[in-house]
Amino acid sequence: MYLGLDIGRQYVKMVTVEKSRDEYKVLDAGLRLVPELNATYDPEKIDHTHWVMAVKELLRQQGLNPKRVKSVISGINGSSSSIKQITTMEMPSDELQSAMTFEARKHIPMDGTDAVIDYQIFGSNSREIDKIDVGLVACTKGVINSHVSLLRECGLKPGIVDVNPIALSNAVTFVKDIPEDGLVVIVDIGAVTSSLVVYGQGQEFFTRDLPLGGYHFVKETAAKHEISYTDAQDLLFKEGLSCMIKTSADDGIDNVRIAERTVYDNLVEDIRRSLRFYAKQTGQSFFLKIFLTGGAAVTPGLADFISSKLNVDTAVFNPFENINGGADFSVTNPNQYTVALGLGIRGGMERE
Ligand SMILES: Nc1ncnc2c1ncn2[C@@H]1O[C@H](COP(=O)(O)OP(=O)(O)OP(=O)(O)O)[C@@H](O)[C@H]1O
Ligand SMILES: [Mg+2]
Question: Is this structure's pTM higher than 0.90?
Answer without folding.
Answer: yes
